[in-house]
Amino acid sequence: MRNEKQWIWQNRAYPHFEYDLKKLDGLIESVSRKQGELMVLSKMMGQENLQQSQLNALENEVISSS
Q: What is the pTM of this model?
């Protein structure tokens, strides 16, 4: 069995994925809570610091995915 990473569109089920919403409830709740925490932090950081953090995150993503 191959364990290679693949693009989402390479999946045989794409774009008709099946999922169990009950299994995702806890994860969705956690993500929503963390999103709220990030919103509060971003307001506390100020616009300039927030923009620098966003730029750093984008740079890291470009480097790690190249």
A: 0.54
Q: What's the per-residue H, E or C state across the chain?
A: CCCCCCCHHHCCCCCCCCCCHHHHHHHHHHHHHHHHHHHHHHHHHCHHHHHHHHHHHHHHHHHHHC
Q: In which band, very low, low, confident or very high, does the pLDDT at 5 lie, cut at 50, 70 and 90?
A: confident
Q: Is residue 15 part of a domain?
A: no
Residue 58 in domain? yes
Residue with tokens 């806890």: 26
For the CA atoms of the chain, what is the radius of gyration? 17
